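Marked as duplicate of an earlier ticket. Keeping the data here for the record.
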Amino acid sequence: MSIQIPVHFTSFMRVEFTTADHPEFDRAITMPQTAPMEWIVDAYLLSVGREPSENPEFDDDSDDYYERPRPVPESLDRWRMAMPALDHRPDVIVRTVDAPPLGAPLVAASSSTTSPAAQGDWLTQAAPFREDDVNRELMRRHGVVMPYFDDRDMRDVDPRIRRSSRIATLLSGLTPARRLALLAHIDAIGLLRESVPDRAMVETAVAPLAGLVRLLGGTGVAQDPVTGWISDSDVERLTRSLGWNGGPDDPYQWGEVVVRFARRAKLIRRLKGRVVATTYAKNLVQPTRGTLVALAGKIGTSTRERFGMPLPRRDAEGALALLAIADGTAHNLDELVSHVAAGAALLDQTDSIFGSDRFDMILASGIGDDVGDKSEEIARLMEGFASLSAPKQFGVVTPAMREVARCALV
């Protein structure tokens, strides 16, 4: 006995965009002949690094779907009119082609020219054309050929990126064109690379914490009678031993940053009237291959890890801060606030859970009073990275900090 399952194969077409004297804007896009016209507009705009169009005239109802204008040769002038304002006006040619294999993207874009590498600021510069990224973005918007397909490459923004990572959270909160730009930026800076930091870099990173462990010694120091933790005089000793020479207001201010981070990361504890270093802290300050990854885990923990529930907007803004450190955009930790503000403006442009603080506030209301406001997220990261500062360079971003930030992102 044989069982036959009828499968309908739709007709496909190849749409060629050419622009005189600008071959970098030439695109060949394969799509079903039954596809709505806005699909081809989306495909071309994404392929040149622009945001896809939003057509308020149609929703997802099936009746509307079949009423949408179709991209046929007679409608070429209308296509050009449908394009948002561009710096160039492409000529369009439509050709009939054989159907692609089952499982291929419904809309696939390609280019005959080599795409330039990502340059400049990913927040504002147009994304370079990278065929896989554009096709993946189109799959997110328009699906794949049914009924048989493998969706492993469709579920994430990039198969190489862990779905639970901080950088994946940021990518999910961006508009399509900014997501493509950030994906190109990620490869340009080698964010996903495998690296083994040298011992000198690791020793630089753990130097302040090692100084704290030396200060406490084997028996610890007496608790301050007021705060119950390390006294101001001991914090001042720590600051001077690290070569930071104190902050502008108090001689122990910068050393106090290390103490606060050590408390939060459970590197120190109170025992019988004294403050002592934990066994974990003593092991952490011994430079090993996994030291920077361990520091990244302490500094860059997500809201899900801290509260048992993710706060998407907070995690996305935290990822913006980590990225500014990892890619070298921020040279001093004081610059993080402005860099995050610039990226947060892009998150505001989406209507997703990343687009406002409202969703975070609803979730946070059921967690507890220790959540605080979102500004604490950046302050928390700044405090952690400041605790890795080099001698006489408090708050200056070092190569070790950039590597820790990279590990925290991926």
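See parent ticket for discussion. The chain has a mean pLDDT of 80.
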